[in-house]
Design a protein that fits this description.
Layout (H helix, E strand, L loop, with lengths): L8 H18 L1 H16 L1 H17 L9 H16 L10 H11 L10 H20 L10 H7 L7 H10 L6 H5 L5 H16 L4 H14 L2
Helix pairs in contact: 1-2, 1-4, 1-6, 2-3, 2-6, 3-6, 3-7, 4-6, 8-10
Amino acid sequence: MFGIVTAGISLIGSACAAVSTICSTLGTGLVSAGKVIINAIQVGLPIAEKVFRAVDLVAKAWGIFTEDHKEEDLYDLGMRAEQASMNGMKSDNFDSYQEYIDHLRADIELKPNLSLSDEDKLKYGALGTAVAIKGISDKYQVEIPDSFWLSGVNMNFQPEQFKPLLDAFESEKVVPKLEDFNKGKLPFSEHEKIYDVLESYLGESMTAQEVEQFFVDAKKNSA
């Protein structure tokens, strides 16, 4: 989808370094989101593609992106965030990430018809995704750890499953700490709450045996 799977190793390294540097100037919350995207890219570009796609679909569902938006709009959002930071404007200056995103689109001007290299596409796609992650977090009444997205992909959830999965966690008022869940770092009661939400969600389309195998595979993939 985002045309990054063929990027070379050298491009990946330089793009990740650029994302880290720029995210440190965008605002406090975007540092953490940026690290998650960098981790996804370093794991492998196919994994990063799934994270980008999952965020894209959930952002569309919440109206952060329009239904007919193109991948260039994600690059555009990343470029606008970078330009805003150069102007001294951070996400911390706004009451919500939605206000920040609205400001980027309405008040930040870019040079027309910019031609982006593969490295630029990866960099700005990552930045746009990081901004969208924080925008999505504003929409839910439960905390969404930034690590949720990469952990969900590592568990082999498909991009189209992320929105209903988040809705299920919100409905049960359970924080989706998938990373700590998979690593066995949660207290028993919290672990069981997450397990119950996942089991109920998966059970809508899987047999009990398939659900059990899903958890076995997810733990292996997240190790």
